[in-house]
Design goal:
It is a single chain. It is built from 27 helices and 17 strands. The strands form four sheets. Strands 6-5-17-16-15-14-13-7 form an eight-stranded parallel beta sheet, covered by helices on one side. Strands 1-3-2-4 form a four-stranded mixed beta sheet. Strand 13, helix 12 and strand 14 form a beta-alpha-beta unit. The longest helix is centred in the C-terminal third of the chain and has 31 residues.
């Protein structure tokens, strides 16, 4: 017993005296902290420096985050160790490769932001502390020093509404469920996915306090959610407040906006901030996005609203800065006109594609953001969709442009603003390095060092494969404004004209689908050599998955052509092969836990204390990635399949039944083709139609089936089915089988 107590006391003492960097290194590899010498140096310039002291690698910097960035740089480019979302532990070389010559990196981009509101629902809705701890380490290693921190926002609102006289039942109808909290927080919807049990609020309050403590240990500046004027849509009748009715958002009831001229505006805002501060403390930055994705309202004085919101925020911390998303109509010009530059920080949310700061873009603002400071942000992913995607040339060009463009003089940092994380690590790695690389470079130069770091050494075939990818699928060009990756044909509701899976992706073909097959083939050729290499096997599955999806898109066109050619035999052959590709995709993705539906559902259920809570959270998880809303919101609102996923289990049990339903309909139609229809024999529903109506009926028609009932059955788990997060099969073996299927004659 004394020995156990001594061990515990030693561990506590080590934690108490060690730095956040020592603890980070120990989480990466036990004993790693003894191999490095960490030096904190005061400096007016953000920097990190690599050096050598005897057998130890020296990492210097002026903040813990900058030192962590230096450690990541060393591991990648000196030790051949690449840490990423699914690979945050590593066996470091012993001894560590020495730093032969002192290496220093500086940046004037001192603010480095992370997260979109959507990330907290599409990727992080069900994360526990262990997963959050890994994410905060990832942020430190990639230079993030001002992360958005909105976990537990619902706790603040519950307390606030209780004090305003709302009942628990009324609050349950206002606050959304865990998979939809982001859109409730952005003033898009009320109540969908709820009501939340008391245990959820307790869990999230505890989790947010752990998150904030760790962020502050690193010296980060968490961005807390500020008050944006949101109130329940019934606040006028319930509380007598003067509000602007926000109407509907894709079929969902939106919360109302409290007008800043209302006599109680200050009271409501003050109550919000008191609850926020009581639970989670004060912040240097507050995220406030009023009037998000809403049309202009003549009742709202946007300048007055901005001043009222600022006054409430400054009442908490006079030195606090308002962080606002630069997205579509926001921030309105009237808001920019009245706010002082030092009080506002704008996230140019989609800088790699649709910059608003003044660079050429469909969203270009002729005068940019004026004198207000802003961050150059990478959006990259929408809906946490699975797919290879990037805009390497655009990203590098737009970033380089900020160094000379007159409208970029107020840029003071970068940001990761993805809707979904844990995908396309190559793009986030590239983005994270931009502040630390003063000289222009090309994607071709950079990818060489990335491949070496990613897999731990040089390999000609791997480099060639990646060169193909960065010239094609990772190089979406200027003028193509699609939102995120090329969407998999498997994931869209089947019709005779399938292209994109979701309603707003704006997809346009920009790469040769055979290029991903060539890249996948090259990687598979050396797969045996890298068996067991975690980074390699993840990429092997992801790149082979992309090749299967791209070839399936071509196969779908063959199915449609056979149907339109009225050839039953060709149709049967083509549709059978399409389903074979879908089945293969499901098996391939099952070899990695990251691509398994079971991982998402298990995380959701683990949040619940009772079976009833587990079912609620699982329903949230299921509906978000499929129909998103009820029938009206899914179909008329267009939200269905927005967050679609190429995941094992989802392919086999959700997408495949839709394709089978579609193919069965077409097959039956081919079998009856040429047979006289009842209406052709006289009488029937069409006997009284006009000639124009009959003419329209004679034109080629798409096939539109009602998929929603089948989708809803899966969402409700009507035929109870559980899914495992445990990988099945060996990635190298199954990927080889997939390539064989794709290349067979």
């Amino acid at each position: 017993m004394r020995k156990i107590l001594l061990t515990i006391l030693c561990a506590v003492a080590l934690t108490a005296t060690s730095t956040p960097i020592d603890q980070l290194l120990e989480r990466i590899d036990k004993g790693a902290s003894t191999k490095f010498k960490i030096e904190m140096k005061k400096s007016n310039t953000d920097f990190f420096e690599l050096d050598q002291s005897g057998s130890r690698v020296v990492v210097r910097g002026n903040t813990w985050v900058n030192i962590a960035s230096g450690i990541n740089w060393y591991l990648k480019y000196h030790a051949g160790v690449h840490l990423t979302w699914n690979n945050m532990k590593a066996k470091l070389p012993s001894p560590l490769p020495p730093v032969i010559q002192r290496e220093r990196h500086e940046t004037a981009l001192t603010l480095r932001y992370d997260f979109n509101y959507c990330t907290f629902s599409y990727s992080m809705a069900f994360w526990d502390w262990e997963r959050w701890q890994q994410e905060i380490d990832w942020m430190a290693l990639h230079g993030v020093n001002m992360p958005l921190a909105i976990v537990g926002e619902e706790c603040v609102w519950r307390n606030m509404l209780l004090k305003l006289g709302y009942s628990e039942e009324e609050i349950g109808k206002f606050i959304a469920g865990p998979a939809f909290l982001a859109w409730w927080e952005m003033n898009n919807l009320e109540g969908w996915g709820g009501p939340l049990p008391l245990s959820w609020y307790q869990r999230q309050e505890r989790l947010q306090k752990q998150i904030l403590q760790r962020m502050k240990e690193y010296g980060m500046h968490p961005v807390l959610p500020g008050y944006a004027g949101m109130v329940p849509h019934d606040a006028k009748a319930r509380l007598g407040l003067d509000v602007a009715d926000a109407g509907l958002w894709n079929g969902f009831q939106r919360p109302a906006n409290l007008l800043p001229t209302d006599s109680r505006f200050g009271e409501i805002a003050d109550l919000y901030y008191k609850e926020l501060t009581r639970l989670f403390g004060k912040a240097d930055y507050y995220s406030i996005d009023p009037f998000h994705e809403s049309n202009d309202d003549s009742r709202i004085d946007y300048g007055a609203a901005a001043m009222a919101l600022l006054k409430a925020m400054k009442g908490v911390n006079p030195k606090a800065v308002w962080v606002v998303q630069g997205w579509t109509e926001n921030p309105r010009q009237q808001m920019l006109d009245v706010l002082k530059p030092e009080d506002l920080l704008i996230l140019d949310l989609f800088s790699e594609c649709r910059p608003m700061w003044g660079a050429p873009s469909v969203w270009k603002r002729p005068q940019g953001y004026g004198e207000h400071r802003w961050l150059f942000c990478l959006l990259e992913n929408f809906g946490a969709n699975v797919g290879l995607h990037g805009r390497m040339d655009q990203l590098l060009h737009n970033f380089q442009l900020t160094k000379t463009h007159p409208l970029a003089s107020k840029m003071c940092g970068i940001g990761f603003t993805m809707e979904g994380s844990e995908n396309n690590p190559v793009m986030f790695e590239l983005m994270s390095e931009l502040p630390w690389r003063p000289e222009p470079f090309t994607k071709e130069e950079w990818i060489r060092s990335y491949v070496k770091a990613r897999y731990g050494g040089d390999d000609a075939k791997l480099l060639k494969a990646w060169q193909i990818l960065v010239e094609g699928i990772y190089n979406c060009p200027l003028g193509n404004n699609q939102q995120g990756p090329h969407e998999s044909i498997f994931c869209g509701r089947p019709t005779l004209n399938n292209f994109q899976a979701s309603s707003w992706s704006k997809m346009r073909n920009y790469y040769d689908p055979n290029s991903t097959l060539l890249a996948a083939s090259l990687i598979n050729e050396v797969a045996e050599k890298y068996r067991g290499n975690n980074n390699f096997e993840y990429d092997l599955v992801d790149i082979t998955r992309q090749a299967v999806a791209d070839q399936a898109r071509k196969q779908y066109q063959m199915v449609v052509a056979a149907y339109k050619a009225a050839s039953p035999s060709d149709f049967d052959k083509a549709s059978k092969r399409f389903l074979q590709l879908l089945e293969m995709q499901d098996r391939l993705l099952g070899t990695r836990p990251e691509f398994r539906l079971g991982r998402w559902l298990e995380m959701a259920r683990a949040c619940g204390d009772t079976e009833e809570e587990k079912r609620l959270y699982e329903w949230n998880a299921r509906v978000q990635i499929t129909t998103w809303g009820n029938r009206y919101c899914a179909d008329t609102g267009g939200l269905r399949d927005y967050a679609h996923k190429e995941w094992q289990g989802l392919l086999a049990d959700f997408y495949a039944p839709r394709w089978n339903m579609f193919f069965d309909y077409l097959r039956k139609d081919l079998q009856t083709m040429g047979s006289p229809k009842p209406d052709m024999l006289g009488g029937g529903a069409n006997s009284n139609k006009t000639s124009d109506e009959l003419f329209q009926m004679a034109l080629p028609q798409d096939v539109v089936l009602d998929y929603y009932p089948t989708e809803e059955q899966w969402v409700l788990n009507s035929t109870p089915r559980t899914y495992s997060s445990l990988a099945a099969g060996q990635p190298v073996d199954v990927a080889r089988q997939a390539i064989s299927l794709l290349t067979e004659k």
